[in-house]
What we know:
This protein is an alpha+beta fold. Helix content is 26%, strand content 10%. The protein has a two-stranded antiparallel sheet with strand order 1-2.
Amino acid sequence: GPDLMTVGERLPTSAWHHLHLYNPTITSKESLMPPYSFLYKKRKIKGSETSKYALKLPPDFTVEEGYEVIPGYRANALVAYLLSLKMSYDLPEAQRD
Length: 97
């Protein structure tokens, strides 16, 4: 897989990371990464509005009518970690004259 050292800079939105973790082929058609859909919950939509945390799935990946997919605690923690991976500091040991 790709180097994740700066993934928080290259792909800075939580929405992208959640879609990629839920089903990698949503964001990367040829992805070989397995889906981590077990980190997400499918739940019945209450009333007429979806949760503000529901994934915005493209038409080809929607769940059954009347249901939505929301991230679980571990999905949110993993996305927060991925977004924190930035190279916003110098590595003195890597600098050369």
